Structure formats: C-alpha cells, structure tokens
C-alpha cells in the first residue's frame, strides 16, 4: 500500500518548497523551487551587504572604544567626550529641532497638497512639478539655496523680494551715507547730526554735507544760495560740498543744494520746530519765538537702504536649511499620500457627504483616519531621513555660521576626516547616530510585516 507524499503540515498532495521524506527536505522538481538554488542567487547580495553594511557597523562599534590612533583601548572615553563637547551638543540640539519640525511640516504640507490636487484638472502635472526637486541631488540643491538666500538683494531671490516689499511701505532715505563735512559745527548723535552750538533767531546757518555721490543728487536740485540773515526767522542752507577746486565749508557757485532734507529746531532737549529744505537746499523756521536753538538733521535723512535679512547668519541658518529640505521632500510626501488617497473607498467619502458632513469634517474624520497608516510610514521615513541629514548642512551655511547649523552626521564627518582627525570619537558618533535611527527603522519594518500578514 503506497503512502502519499505530505508537506510539513501533513496535508496529502500539498506542494511547498520541497517534499518531506522522513525528516529530510528534498527539492521538489515539480515546482522548480530549490532552497539551495535560492541561496546561490542570494549569496552575491549577502556578500555585498556584509562588505558594505555589516562589516562597517561592527568595525565602527569596535573602533569607538579605541583612541585616535586606534592602538589604545579607552573604553567609553570617546562617548564621554562626545557628550561633553560643545559642538557635538549643538549638533544634538539641532537634530532635535530637525526631528520635531521638518517631518511634521513635510507630512502636513504633503497631505494638504495631495488632497487639494485631487480636485484640480492637471493634478498629475502639478504633482510632477512638486516632485521634480527630488530628482536634484541634495548637494546641488544646497548650492541653489545658498544663492537663493544670499544677503545681497541683487543675487538672493528671497532678499530681493523682502527689500521690494519693505521699500513699498517704507521708502529708503534720500541721501544714504551722507554726513556733515569735517569742520562743520555738527556732531553725530543717536537721533542724527546735531549742531555743537546754538543759533539765535535772525541768523543764517550753513550745513555742508559730504559722503554722497553728486550723480545721485535729485534732478530737481538747484544751485545752492546763502540765505539772508537779519530777519526774525531762523534760516539755513544744506548743500553738497564736493565741487572740484571749491573751498571746504564754503558755498561755491557750482554746488547743488539738497532738496527734501528734514531739519529740526531743538530747545531744552525737545523739538519745537520742523521744516524741509527746498530745491536749492534752503530752509526756514517761521514763527519761532525769539531765542537760541540747536539744529538737528534727523538720522532718517541719511539711513542706508534696507538690504534685507542675513538669512545665512547664525540666528537664522537652521530654519533656512529646514525650509530648503521641506521644498525638496514635499514632493516625496505628496506622491505617497496621493497613492494612499487613491486607495480610499469613495463610498465612505460619499456616505459622509450624504450624511451632511462638510468638506472639513470629511477630511478630519474620514480621510485622515483612513490615511493614518500611510501618513505614519511617510512620517517615520522622513524622521530617518532628517536624522542622517548631511549635504544641505555642509553646503548652505557659510563658514561663519557652520557651527550653529551643525548636525550629528556632519559632526561625525568633521571629527573623523576633517580638522579633528579622531576616528575614535567619530566612530562613537556613528554608533550613536545608528542608535537614533534604529528605532524608527524597526518600527517601519514591523509595520510592513503586520501589513503583509
């Protein structure tokens, strides 16, 4: 009597990887599946992973317990140095900022844009445009954003926009950088340029200015003329004292008056009169009571034009780099979330709308809960990405703000291969970085396994 073949569970006729004969598994020719053949094909990949992943990981762990030269065992000394170094602590702080801000911003922005693009006609083209930054290397993107945030408005797009908006509501001064000539009876104060002495009503005051290009004098400026004294009014003239061959602090025929200069009359510390110079630079204070007054040219006459913000300075450098990373990675989030949206049953959305739910309620109570598994995978993947951020932090900050933008991956590279040259401490940082990334990786792997089971 013959006994039918059974698989591992004892089911007759079942087919698996092989046939069980007693306690020995043999190849099953009928299926063409062979564990030995599979192992043979997997061997090259296993060797590559061992050489590029497993060996460096084990070597880094071992190397982290040795000194700079690699000859003397120092135990956990490198780890102690890591947590007491100021630059490394700054790197850890910046990594925390990255993890808290960047993945949340990208996931939220990707969710909103993915939902909105479902309602537009050219949704695919729009998503393609948003995904295009992913095709650019992070190194090249860093160079682009280094130029975008350049402090010079003639080069940096952001500062050009900021300066344009600022000047729209607050025009720049008429004579930036101008100041009284040396020898004139005026001195610099926080409020502007004030006269060193006082002037009585009925006198005439001359105010020679330098430090301004003659070519930039307004076209309506007329030749400066000295005001007449002797009346009950306090008068004066402001002119650009830069004519070739002219006498310093003296009016010459070819010199231009400076229009629209604000002048204040000050008495006992308070402003008692204001006036503005005419096309020929002359000004008059009518109606001042008899007495002595100090003259002051307010600082807003001579303020330098607004040049924007120092985006690449120490105080703003980390938000700037995070903004560039958000621009790059938003397309990644949109692509994954849009794929999740396409898998949502439309019946659930329509049922909610039929029950009277608004679009915001449908989004909050139906769309987001159904997308939660996808959002979680996207978020965790982005967390892993920001923990390893390197290229943008290397390229975007100038040398003066590199330390304030530092992150763990960059610190590891600088300590190991830069000016530090200490691969013991660098290996300790590599191990710490792996320990930071490992929980997120394990979480993702477990989710994938649960979804497959």
Automatic annotation (TrEMBL):
Its main location: membrane. GO terms for biological process: transmembrane transport. The keyword Cell membrane applies. It is found in: Cell membrane. Keywords: Cell membrane, Membrane, Transmembrane, Transmembrane helix, Transport. GO terms for cellular component: plasma membrane. It is a multi-pass membrane protein. Residues 1-32 are annotated as: Disordered. InterPro entries: MetI-like, MetI-like_sf, UgpAE/MalFG_permease. The chain crosses the membrane at residues 37-58, 96-116, 128-149, 325-345, 366-387, 425-445. It comes from the Bacteria. Gene3D superfamilies: MetI-like. Residues 92-444 form the ABC transmembrane type-1 domain. Belongs to the binding-protein-dependent transport system permease family. This is Alpha-glucoside transport system permease protein. It comes from Umezawaea tangerina.
